[in-house]
């Protein structure tokens, strides 16, 4: 659909109203969940989503439950105006940017844990991380009800956790992995690359070369 009128919603009710209007018009809907601080990698997810659906929703939500207390939740880069402008440029239809209280209302006490695939690798280093991711992604999928949801293969274990939870919980969505976007020297694009010192940034492409 080409009548792109980019909009921002902040509540589940507004999100559902818009998605249901699109559905009634026969549109297929894609969701691209993000934590903002968007770069070309995220925009490639939106482009892939556009190739698979008539309407694309991107969510920007820095999810507190996937950060351990000593991690970078407070420092995580946030710039909604810039994110919105980039999303509008690549043809995203709707930005869903809920406040924390909309996602986790007072008394919230449910956690989604995915045994097995969440446990090794990153799960060892960050023991509470994947439960936070699984919980928020389950909520985003239930709030939006997309036909397809796109996640980067850069976070390959996360992608497997999400595929598992969607299958196990019978969430009617196609979970699609998108190829990793890389800088010219091979470094995978990531919002957290902004934390690298010049020396670390210079050394980092060694990882891609080794792979
Ligand atoms: O990959 C991310 O940006 C996040 O982990 C996600 C999937 C948006 C959940 O907060």
What do you see in this structure?
By secondary structure, the chain is an alpha/beta fold. The protein has 2 domains: 7-180, HUPs (Rossmann fold, 3-Layer(aba) Sandwich), CATH 3.40.50; 185-211, no CATH class. Helices cover 40% and strands 13% of the residues. The chain contains 9 helices and 6 strands. It has helices at 12-24, 40-52, 80-89, 100-103, 122-125, 129-144, 156-168, 198-203, 205-210; strands at residues 7-9, 29-34, 55-60, 94-96, 148-152, 174-178. Strands 1-4-3-2-5-6 form a 6-stranded parallel β-sheet, with helices on both faces. Strand 5, helix 7 (156-168) and strand 6 form a beta-alpha-beta unit. Helix 6 (129-144) packs across helix 7. The chain is globular, with a radius of gyration of 17 Å. The termini are far apart. The mean pLDDT is 96. The structure holds pantoate (PAF).
